[in-house]
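Researcher: I'd like a structural prediction for the single chain below. Treat it as a standalone chain; there are no partners to consider.
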Amino acid sequence: MKIRPFLFNLLPTKATRSPQNPALKWGRYRGLKLQMKSEAPMALTVVQVKSTKPKEKAYKLADERGLYLLVNPNGSKLWKLKYRFAGIEKKLSLGAYPEVSLSAARDAREDARKQLINNIDPGVLKNSIKRSKKLAAENSFEAIAREWHAKFSSKWTKEHGERILIRLEQNVFPWIGRRPILEVTVPELLSALRRVESRGAIETAHRILQICGQVFRYGIATGRAERNLSADLIGALAPVKKKHHASITDPIEVGKLLRTIDGYEGFFVTKCALQLAPLFFVRPGELRHAEWSEIDFENAEWRIPAEKMKMREQHIVPLSTQAITILQELKAFTGGSKYVFPSIRSSKRPMSENTVLGALRRLGYTTDEMTGHGFRSLASTLLNENGWNRDAIERQLAHAERNNIRAAYNYAQYLDERRKMMQWWADYLQALSQEKIKDFKVA
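Model: Treating it as a single chain, here is the predicted structure.
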């Protein structure tokens, strides 16, 4: 049987293969080209994926079963899966090459196909998992702690706020920060605190436990935590040994201290701070952050704003005549600055927290003898010994008021008595300094 000529033209020949796609073969029928697939597309190889180059426009390299590599003009290579769910064609991103290899992309494709077999849309499932992870991150212990810190830090001093955040960042976040707050366990929290305790920082461990308790309470209040784990750790840490700030309380030794301060030959501003510290007996941080705008010479008082005080309530320091004299001399020197005691390096900053302590060391007093905080103990001891009203003394020391309602109104409590006490105190210290205590009338 003879083959007719026109049928012969339909047979594929080597010369008529498409140079663009060798898998396609060509025939002719009366001058028309006919395209016929001779075989299925080949799966991608590792070499192909690695060596493929970007073009002016994005293009695809097909693998098998809907998987393909999208090559973008910027050179990025993205794995995609084309699939149908409920009759609708969809696409699923499987990651970028080379982070996701060809083998890994095929594994992800097979996982998606198994989900389709179980009537699960892999794209919807992926988005659901992504949202769950984001929600877990938003509800992590660290996220809630930072939110709590941002909300309440405006009510703290800058130093206090920074100290809290540093303690969390160094001692808590590395261990339980990423955990959803609902999943944090008591042993996990205790383990983080034990690390602090093991380096001898017992007091710091207790303070961190208190901070964590506040974070958990905030989480409960905002509906993201169910219980305060810190309550279960009461008694689990080693007890804190109470430390008393070194202080001189013997009247004769106090007189020597005051005379030594009067003989200080260092920076004038530091000398004034040393002289005023026993007259005011405020906390060292409150003293060095004093501003001229807070000093009222006419009414003879220094009003410290609530945000600068440890207990977050305004505090009044009545000014004795001795204190006013020192302040007036100091104003001629630092009145152009915002701060009463500016830094020696910049008038825009207060003096360093170690200035007074360092000056005491240069005067020969060790940490076991006297500290900047010790002026408070000195005043408390001698005022009580001399018969002044204990409540007036405590109010002048700005100690905590346990009744929160009373605390909001007690900054001026016993103020008349405190004015008399502060002037008596200045006269008493002057008598000690001048060794004239025998002629001094006690209260």
